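RECORD TYPE: inverse folding
INPUT: structure tokens
STRUCTURE:
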């Protein structure tokens, strides 16, 4: 059974208690968003997620999207849910007020995204991709394009996509063939085929605005010859309403493992009219604006599915009776005890819980940096936020989605045979979560980005944005009477991270394959240390609240217990990652290609 209740108490904790000393300060531009206002938004978002989107999650998966006469139909109830979502202002939550947005903090927006993803991941892609597209348009398009497209996209009346992948090339965009022919004015004719386009065609909005990578006739080869174009499904008329079709057609919708209520399309552009976004031959710069926004959001998708899977597993573990507790009967009136009494079931539930709370805490930290990057008036704070975001974006995308997929698999294991059966609903979480580890750059690509670009950038400057606060925290708290052992564990993991950084830097300079072989382990190591840091902070705060005599003792007690589990059972992965990194590439690259 798919069970979900928004974890509002933990969300309020990471917003109002955990990151008050993160170095990004109180941002004057966001002063009007008081805790009471933020909490009210979270509570309303929870109602939308639980009452409107969750009931459509399984039915949408069963029905899926259909293609009829060139038109994609979303599952029953999606259009009505989207209209309610748009009319409620949820599409415009974090967008700039200049274009009709509400300008809410990104830290709040990401938690709202989490709720939407938990309740209905397929649905989340439609407004989520639009928000990403608006960031690229706002950052790089001409004023005329902004005025023509942003208000309706921010409102949600029009939606947006990103069109990168082609049948013959995926990650290596330097091979793309889509062409852009100048028309003598400020427009271009776009021709080519794109695949794997999420929300590429649907019946939820009046128009769909595609951001398309293509090549100009005189473009250099490779990624240095890629430009970005805005291509609407329908050409707007003078009054701003959708006009004639613009030569964008759907060849097929993909038959996918999961996310069946999200329309993933093969699109053809046949002399479609488009307009340049940004500078010619520098489209990747503008597209990366959208991609980096989406990479953080994809990490939140992993967290969202992980939370829903965890809650569904907890529900089942309390309901399902089987076997007797090893420490004595717990349900004497029944034939067996609920399976939640068994240690191995607890292991699975606590693993998912710790990954979820750790991801939420780290995600809130990165979201605070996103707000500082946009609103800080102190240049030093803004620069530190930019460095931190650059470093942590691949970690959020890859680690959160790895953990979310693991949590979904653990939920199936808790259900046992019933988890493998579609009627339980939990196998959908596994199928839906799997794509998040692939799109917006596979997790392996994220790891390569971390060690190949982010780690060495500016002589390691990005790393300092993370290393310094962690080091300062350890020094300030390792003598703590209650949690000294926990801080000691964090110090050892942090030491492994520092040694691994040196090892990769030294070996990677001589042999790039050494850095590539270490990349995935290094990303997980950094992410585990980040989770450990936030859990240690959370435990100290929780104890202080308990000592004060809080009325919310159960929450803080559980927070400390979850932190202890993380340090006992999950942070030791840091040692394994360090040993794997230290071993080098030799055994990984030993076989000749023909030996596989």
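DESIGNED SEQUENCE:
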């Amino acid at each position: 059974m798919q069970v979900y209740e928004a974890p509002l108490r933990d969300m309020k904790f990471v917003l109002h208690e955990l990151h008050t000393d993160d170095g990004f300060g109180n941002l004057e531009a966001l002063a009007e968003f008081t805790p009471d206002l933020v909490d009210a938004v979270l509570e309303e978002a929870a109602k939308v997620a639980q009452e409107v989107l969750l009931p459509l999650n399984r039915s949408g998966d069963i029905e899926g999207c259909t293609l009829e006469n060139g038109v994609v139909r979303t599952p029953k109830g999606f259009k009505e849910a989207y209209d309610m979502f748009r009319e409620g202002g949820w599409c415009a939550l974090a967008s700039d007020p200049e274009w009709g947005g509400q300008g809410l903090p990104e830290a709040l927006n990401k938690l709202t995204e989490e709720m939407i993803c938990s309740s209905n991941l397929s649905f989340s892609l439609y407004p989520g991709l639009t928000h990403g597209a608006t960031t690229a348009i706002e950052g790089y398009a001409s004023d005329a394009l902004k005025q023509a497209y942003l208000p309706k996209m921010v409102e949600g009346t029009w939606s947006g996509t990103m069109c990168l992948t082609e049948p013959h090339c995926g990650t290596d965009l330097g091979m793309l063939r889509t062409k852009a022919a100048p028309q003598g004015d400020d427009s271009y004719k776009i021709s080519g085929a794109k695949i794997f386009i999420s929300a590429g065609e649907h019946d939820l909005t009046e128009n769909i605005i595609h951001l398309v990578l293509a090549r100009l006739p005189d473009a250099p080869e490779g990624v240095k010859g890629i430009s970005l174009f805005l291509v609407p499904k329908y050409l707007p008329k003078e009054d701003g309403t959708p006009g004639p079709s613009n030569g964008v057609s759907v060849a097929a919708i993909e038959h996918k493992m999961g996310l069946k209520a999200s329309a993933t399309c093969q699109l053809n552009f046949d002399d479609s009219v488009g307009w340049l976004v940004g500078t010619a031959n520098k489209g990747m710069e503008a597209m990366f604006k959208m991609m980096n926004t989406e990479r953080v959001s994809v990490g939140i998708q992993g967290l969202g599915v992980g939370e829903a899977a965890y809650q569904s597993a907890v529900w089942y573990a309390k309901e399902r009776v089987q076997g007797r507790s090893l420490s004595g009967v717990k349900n004497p009136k029944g034939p067996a005890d609920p399976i939640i009494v068994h240690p191995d079931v607890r292991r699975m539930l606590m693993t998912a819980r710790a990954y979820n709370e750790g991801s939420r805490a780290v995600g809130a930290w990165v979201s605070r940096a996103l707000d500082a990057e946009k609103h800080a008036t102190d240049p030093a704070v803004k620069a530190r936020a930019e460095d931190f975001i650059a470093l942590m974006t691949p970690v959020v995308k890859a680690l959160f989605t790895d953990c979310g997929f693991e949590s979904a698999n653990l939920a199936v294991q808790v259900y046992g045979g019933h988890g493998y059966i579609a009627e339980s609903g939990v196998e959908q979480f596994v199928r839906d979560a799997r794509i998040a580890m692939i799109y917006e750059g596979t997790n392996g690509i994220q790891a390569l980005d971390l060690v190949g670009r982010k780690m060495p950038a500016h002589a390691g400057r990005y790393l300092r944005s993370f290393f310094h606060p962690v080091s300062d925290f350890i020094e300030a708290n390792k003598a703590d009477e209650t949690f000294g052992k926990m801080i000691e564990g964090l110090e050892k993991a942090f030491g492994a991270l520092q040694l691994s950084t040196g090892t990769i830097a030294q070996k990677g300079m001589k042999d790039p394959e050494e850095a590539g072989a270490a990349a995935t382990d290094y990303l997980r190591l950094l992410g585990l240390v980040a989770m450990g840091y936030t859990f240690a902070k959370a435990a100290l705060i929780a104890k202080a609240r308990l000592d004060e005599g809080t009325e919310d003792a159960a929450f803080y007690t559980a927070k400390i217990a979850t932190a202890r589990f993380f340090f006992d059972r999950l942070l030791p992965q840091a040692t394994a990652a360090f040993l794997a990194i230290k071993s080098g590439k030799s055994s990984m690259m030993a076989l000749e290609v023909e030996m596989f």
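NOTES: The longest helix spans residues 283-319.
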